[in-house]
Predict the structure.
Amino acid sequence: MIDTHAHMLPGIDDGAPTLEDAVALCRMAAEDGIRMSVCTPHINFRYENHRDTIEAPFQELREAIRKEGIALELVKGAEVHMAPDIVEKVKRKDLVTYNDAGCYLLLEFPFQPVMTGDDEMVYRLRLAGVTPVIAHPERIAWFMNDPDRLFRLIRLGALGQVTGGSILGKFGEKSRRAAMTMVERNLVHMVASDAHDVSYRRPLLAEAAAAITQQFGDDRCRAMTVETPRAVIEGSAVEPLDPVENPRSARTFFGLFSRRQ
């Protein structure tokens, strides 16, 4: 499996505080069957990370797990909080995209229930040649309360990434239901751990993958845990399943007043 969202780099955000903790996260991931993890430290108003702050701990951790014999490949990335200047920073190569390939960017939207400019941000990133990967929409109130909002962004060309813990109900029943609805409607294309520590926010995917397999089949699980993540990291084209529109929102104005048959 490939984990496309994990806060493993030591000491630069709210993930692993020390190198020892970061190595423990990597060991846990490898033991769970994860063979590649994308290190995605926060880039936001609280953690002003950039290329230089990410590069040094990335190389340090990669060397440490090599010495420990941990069978896990690390890839550079970042979780970028939505801000008005993202497109300009992408064009200047100030932000770290997946594998620094300039093709896919992990984008975090605000957690508050009201949002503006989400469709414009996706549209502008796509014009700049970058596909946004929307982080944990099932935990963002704007999308959790109305998955049709996510549907519109997927139609614009974004991808969605659900958290494995949400599939398992670890962020509450509302997030679990939203997560399953988003998988069912083809609104999320990858499942990731969003790991932060070895206790509550662990770098594990096997249990969530089993739940996806049980509900949606082996092919869908492989697409979400291996095939699409690999394409994103390689900067290759992704051909996702067509998003499924909510039948209730698809009714025409006149249909609302039509006689029931």
In short: Residues 51-68 form the longest helix (18 residues). The first strand starts at residue 2 and ends at 6. Confidence is low (pLDDT under 50) at residues 250-261.
